């Protein structure tokens, strides 16, 4: 992925929002790794892989929801 060039205001907002979801992301990463280390090598793919992907998608959905809620609170709209 290419690096995004943001204004200083956009970068500050990105950092603020990342901090809001940081705790959930950290908790989720730990839970994913607990799942992974509990499995033998031959069980890392397949069902375990899909469980990890589902958890990652849930975290991404949480990130999107957080941004939408924060924009609603502030009465702002994103870039056009």
Give helix and strand order, one letter per element, not per position.
HH
- What is the rounded Rg? 16 Å
Low-pLDDT regions: none
Distance between the termini: 21 Å
So what's the overall shape? elongated
Structural category is mainly alpha
Sheet with most strands? none
Mean residue pLDDT = 93
Give the percentage of residues in beta strands: under 5%
Number of strands: 0
- Helix tally equals 2
Helix content estimate: over 70%
Brief sketch in words of this structure:
It is built from two helices and no strands. The protein has helices at 8-37, 47-74.
Structure, explained:
The chain has 80 residues and is mostly helical. It has a domain at 25-72. The chain contains two helices and no strands. It has helices at 8-37, 47-74. Helix 1 runs antiparallel to helix 2 (47-74). It is elongated and about 50 Å long.
Indicate the topology.
Layout: H1 8-37, H2 47-74
Helix pairs in contact: 1-2
Key structural traits:
80 residues; mainly alpha; 2 helices
